[in-house]
Amino acid sequence: MKISMHLVLLMAGVLFIVGLALGTPPLNLPVRATGLANADDRTQIAHGHRLHVQYCASCHGARLQGQFGWRVRAADGRMKAPPHDASGHMHEHSDAELLATIQNGAGVGIDMPRYAGVLSDRDAMAIIAYIKSTWPLAVRIAQAAANPDRAGMPKAVLTPELAVAQLCLASQKRPNTAPKLPPTDDSVGKSQP
């Protein structure tokens, strides 16, 4: 038991030094900045869910699943709506980037409309909070790492184990979210050398 505790303390110390070298705070527990999407605020989440149903679900899906084939550009150059669940790319962007996409539209080749003048920034942040509240904790930690001072860190990041995970994720620019692929048919049943 003592060896594993020493190992954990050594790893935490190394991560502390890596965090300092990267210019990130070594242990930044939850930050509750105003104006950011707070996926721990039940009122904001409920408001965001209502707005998501009204403005977003027709393209991004009632279950946040997006449109089939969203990663492939169609023959006309258009892209389909990506999922808002953890299988999409939304968690790779800061709250400010997500707000800008909602308010200004997504750009050339994507049918995401502008919602400036339709939704207030507060409403858009509520939608983002709702979406973030559906993600697994590790994805929420990784997304919060994209925010200034890692604002929006989940409340659950209060245990030392999760704080270490936060440091590991924050030291990476983008976490690897690629799904694990099953073995190919010709590799099934064959022994590995």
Keywords summarizing the entry:
mainly alpha; single chain; globular; 193 residues
What percentage of residues falls in helices of 4 or more residues? 40-55%
Ends apart, CA distance between termini:
36 Å
Give the total of beta strands.
0
CATH topology: Cytochrome Bc1 Complex, Chain D, domain 2
**What is the CATH superfamily label?**
Cytochrome c-like domain
Q: Using the CA coordinates, give the radius of gyration.
A: 20 Å
- CATH level-1 class: Mainly Alpha
CATH architecture grouping: Orthogonal Bundle
Q: What is the averaged pLDDT score?
A: 76
Count of alpha/pi helices:
6
Shape: globular
Biggest beta sheet summary:
none
Poorly predicted runs of 5 or more residues: 12-34
Portion in strands:
under 5%
Structure class: mainly alpha
The total domain count is 1
Topology readout:
Elements: H1 2-21, H2 42-60, H3 95-104, H4 121-133, H5 137-144, H6 160-170
Helix pairs in contact: 1-6, 2-4, 3-4
